[in-house]
Batch of 2 targets.
Target 1
Amino acid sequence: MSQTIDTNVMVYALTEGHKAERARVVVATASFVSVQLLNELVNVARKKLRLDWSAAGLLSNKVREAVGAVLPISESDHVEALRLGARYRLSYYDALMLAVAITGGAHTIYSEDMQHDLVIDDTLRITDPFR
């Protein structure tokens, strides 16, 4: 079964602490990530980790190499995110992450920030890997 991850799981995997090892295990099972994850990761690297552009780019490259497949965001994903956001009362960016996950054929998305065990359109389950 195909799986993907939300940005927060990737951030934990790149750090140290009690959630880091579990996050690394989950990241290793990901079939793909959304380019949105890379965008958000660079933003976190620049703002919270205070990395310069070069280091943030290297981090993004490292993640791309580790995960393999990176799915783009399409216009249809945008439209689907609007529907999902309204239906499930999600933030737009969470809905967009879910739309790409569904487009990619994922059955599970690991996220600490979204509602654990929520099933989207009988297709995609949100799972908090730290529960």
Target 2
Amino acid sequence: MSVPVIILSVLEIILAVSMVVLFLVQEGNDRGMGVVGGVTNDSYFSKTKGRSLEERLKSATRLVGILFAIVSVVLYLAIARGF
């Protein structure tokens, strides 16, 4: 294996682990059984929480996913061409 392939492999592993961690840290969209009973929590914090941490986590997950796809394609091409 050449040095660029090793670097791309390590980068792909780091991106894969970070994508899994970012995915697991995010909260789910379900609100549990409170929705069935009609219980809602429409406080100011619950309305603006999506603009802060959750949106940053979603955009970071999206960015890491795109980078992971790009690095995977480049790594495949590097291995296929024998770099």
